[in-house]
Write a structure and sequence with these properties.
Blueprint: H1 2-10, E1 21-26, E2 32-37, E3 40-43, H2 53-56
Antiparallel strand pairs: 1-2, 2-3
Length: about 60
């Protein structure tokens, strides 16, 4: 895990494991432009959302 984190940091990848994505924002071209986390829009090209199955089931 340590090597994964080191490699991510070298590639300017942000890992935020304790936060909730409040919104996924799209640009005028329909592509991802940013993600809102804790009231702040974080510009990004890609995002990976990992959620527990019970939370993502939409029950």
């Amino acid at each position: 895990m340590g090597r994964l984190i080191l490699a991510a940091n070298q590639l300017d990848v942000m890992l935020d494991t304790g936060s909730t994505a409040e919104a996924i924002n799209l640009g005028s071209d329909g592509r991802l432009s940013s993600v809102r986390v804790s009231g702040n829009d974080v510009k990004c090209d890609e995002v990976v959302l990992a959620t527990p199955p019970a939370e993502s089931a939409g029950s």
